Please model this.
Amino acid sequence: MSKTFIPKEISWLSFNERVLQEAENKCVPLIERFKFLGIYSNNLDEYFRVRVATLRRLSQFGSKSKNILGYSPKSTLKRIHEIVLSQNVRFEKIYSALIQELDGHKIHIINEKQLNPEQIEFVKNYFHTEVRTRLMPFLIEKDSELPNLTDDAIYLAIYLKNKEPEKNKYSLLEIPTNVLPRFVILPEKDDDKYVIFIDDIIRFGLKEIFFIFDFDEISAYTIKLTKDAELELVDDISESFIDKMSRSLQQRKWGSPVRFIYDREMPHELLKMLTKKLNFGPDDVVMPGNRYHNFKDFIKFPKLGKKKFYYEPIVPVYHKDIQPGRSILSSIKKKDIMLFFPYQPFDYFIDLLREASIDPYVTTIQITLYRLARNSSVINALLNAVRNGKSVTTIVELQARFDEEANITWGNKLMEEGVKVIYGVPGLKVHSKLCLISREKNKIIERYAAVGTGNFNEDTARIYTDHLLLTTNKKITYEVYKAFGFFNVNYRKDNFYHLVLSPFFLRNKVTLLIDNEIKNAKAGKKAFIYLKLNNITDSEIINHLYEASKAGVTIRLIIRGMISLVPGLKDLSENIKAIGIVDRFLEHTRFMIFCNGGNEECYISSADLMTRNIEHRIEVTCPVFDKSIRNEMKEIFEIQWSDNVKARKLDAALSNEYVKPGKNAIQSQIEVYNYIKKVNEKTPDK
Model:
């Protein structure tokens, strides 16, 4: 493995370890720590479904694969297995400690063998009324094939033991967590609260399901299968893109297994039979685990216990330039507005769309849609606009991973109501976050643009940090108009002088900005590059940053997720420092600040500095022209850079050491919130 480049898959595991640290951190409220275990587990599922699956495919190309990746997929897979097993030991230790802590607060997670008489009655009744009719076991015969197991579901592998071994039977039963809650609250006793997994309610009633068989003992062991989730799109131009996507989603259900987790108490013959039927070989990830899997369900653990077990809800800060009950369009016309979620309400964007939908002078609304909320108010506002006679165009990205089916449904709903729906760009993911409202009065067209770093999604806007610029600046609005022209007219490329579009201009633009800092550093001028991103893995840009470091440019990186760059290497990256912040909110905003000889340039972006974002996606990077907003962005960066509570050093050893605390504890998400409050305090009229 190169000393100057960390494979992104290994770096990602280091990010997920930071999530695990939050579950371990005693300063995090108790139930929130369980949620971090859930987030860690959910992240790991997706990682296996996508990244590990891709590496496995690449490893089939032999030595060619190393040329494609720049490192060996086979040895990377081996290293992944080692890291995941080691993290799993830590995960189980944290889980046990958290269960004990819950017990200390009189909240008990118990199994079917620990029920008192009143709870037995409750579980019996719950099993009969809610569970039994949803259980459909599948018998496993020695010479039969397994059914197509659902990706990411959990199953009970059931062993019906008979005195005569030849009469032993085996079965599989899917735990129906798609229709029933994973956790059921049991009757209390005194002040003690009790919770049981649905898995154990099923174990409690198993004899009733298998009563027709002759057995002496019945036992059940949880298993979970994770499958390859990458979509295979056959390039057949005679078939519409949406049909291809629908077919590919069916294929995903038959994706090859990439990970198998089983209860380590499972009898050897049952395990051997299952792995054989699933065609697992010595190179496959077969992991022993505890009695329960799918810890992602802890993200929705029932609300129990004291207020101190949860984060206090934050009260979103109102923007000083948007007056309640007044026109947002006229506020944007006065000056550029930068919103920062979740510190400020996403409702502003919904209000903007609603206002546009009823404003008699608004003629068109155009928007890119990538991931949407389950009950999307954005969609409702767009449908309302069509009903009010506006022309509405949506660019719906069908390749938003794991949201493809939802996006097909949304697309169909929009089309039925008369919205023009464009399904992305073949071969390129539309990942940009753009909205353009056009208003015509006295034959003069005014354009209002929203350019963001995150999705137009009110659910994630409560837990992801993202910036959204609202502007009528013609330099930006005209180019947003041209970007929508690109989607509308057979992807005709235009000239852009302010917005930076991937895959056409971003690599070149970032390279020029870095070159400018190198030139200034060599001339003895102040030179710096500050990047706040989710991921940085593109080797060409990383090498360019190494050049800048060698030239004396100060480089500060705040990277949430993957970082293939190695900071602090002698004679190469001594001037590069990097931190990662994992806290209550997911750090999702992306922005870049360049010194530019003192005349600082600032950009917000939908793109990370990854090859896929730079070369295979439609992304938009947007300059921030308003000086006061530029200053705010720099202040926010400085606050985050000063974090000494939730920041970890990102280094060659992937140590994830916390930044050493100074005299004052600075938890950047709290300090940023306080800063946003301060900046938006109303100044009294004189």
Q: What stands out?
A: Residues 232-239 have pLDDT under 50 and may be disordered. The CA atoms of residues 3 and 566 lie 8 Å apart.
